[in-house]
Amino acid sequence: MTCPLRVVAVSGGLQRPSKSASLARHLLDLIAAETPCCPHLIEMGALASQLSGAVRRSELPAAVEQELLAVEQADVLVVVSPVYRGAYTGMFKHFFDFIHQDALIDTPVLLAATGGSERHALVIDHQLRPLFSFFQARTLPLGVYATDKDFVDPGLWDEALLERARLAVQRALPLVALARNASPALADERVLA
Description:
It is a single chain. It contains 7 helices and 8 strands, in the order βαβααβαβαββββαα. The model has no long low-confidence stretch (mean pLDDT 89). The strands form 2 sheets. Strands 1, 2, 3, 4, 5 and 6 form a 6-stranded parallel β-sheet that branches. The protein has a two-stranded antiparallel sheet with strand order 7-8. It has helices spanning 19-34, 44-51, 62-72, 90-97, 123-134, 159-182, 184-192; strands at residues 6-11, 38-43, 76-82, 108-115, 138-139, 144-147, 151-152, 155-156. α1 packs across α6. It has a single domain, classed as Rossmann fold (3-Layer(aba) Sandwich).
């Protein structure tokens, strides 16, 4: 049986447990509650030691290659990074440096980030959106930004944040369906590229 919708989340958080991974899981759960899918979470904290020394994709171990392929073959991406010095983490960027530049064309991407305060909320529009524009992905219009105060172990508690996450997913679903049904040939082109 084939998976109806491959939804892959990438968390740029290096610590475990990670607030970014918690937000990514929450967004995956919201999508899974609305549409049949195969959710998959990739955590940079688990891959960092295998990823950090590589310069070429051919130098990566099989486990990292498998995660790169999961991203390249995703029907939908959810990307979440903690804010580090005003941007996404270096390991998050290093991971995406290995993604083939044509692999994400027209892939819907839900952008999210976590940070210590509201001061970094624009990281979604000033850092994440340009990165995925390079890949010609379809960045979804509503991003989700969470601060430290939005979390209580083990997860999210702030009702305004939970509502924004629900709204982001609700607004994303029609675009996801449109992209998924629009061009099966495009998916074949990406695989052959």
